[in-house]
Design goal:
By secondary structure, the protein is mainly alpha-helical. Helices cover about 75% and strands about 0% of the residues. The protein has helices at about 1-15, 20-50, 50-55, 60-85.
């Protein structure tokens, strides 16, 4: 908890001012973790469709990992887009 308390105030302070960096940092982090979650979704999805899946007793666990990681990747992608809309440097907008 002490590590969380040490980096949270500078992150919150960087959301305001002339050049806020929190949106940039958080959008890059959610994009990268979302990409890794998508990869983690693809691998078990491919494993469940192979001939090995019928022999492997962990097929149900692979389906659960596939389902969870695909939903996680979808959520992180939505968060990534939302954070990019908050970044004033790039200037993305829903209406232009």
């Amino acid at each position: 908890m002490a590590a969380f308390e040490s980096w949270l105030p500078p992150l919150l302070a960087s959301t305001t001012g002339d050049s806020p960096k929190a949106f940039w940092l958080l959008s890059r982090a959610t994009g990268l973790i979302g990409y890794l979650a998508l990869w983690l979704s693809i691998v078990p999805g491919l494993l469940t469709t192979s001939r090995l899946a019928r022999l492997w007793p962990g097929g149900a666990a692979a389906v659960d990992v596939h389902e969870f990681s695909s939903l996680l990747a979808l959520g992180l992608t939505v968060a990534h887009v939302g954070l990019l809309l908050g970044d004033r440097y790039i200037g993305y907008s829903l209406f232009t």
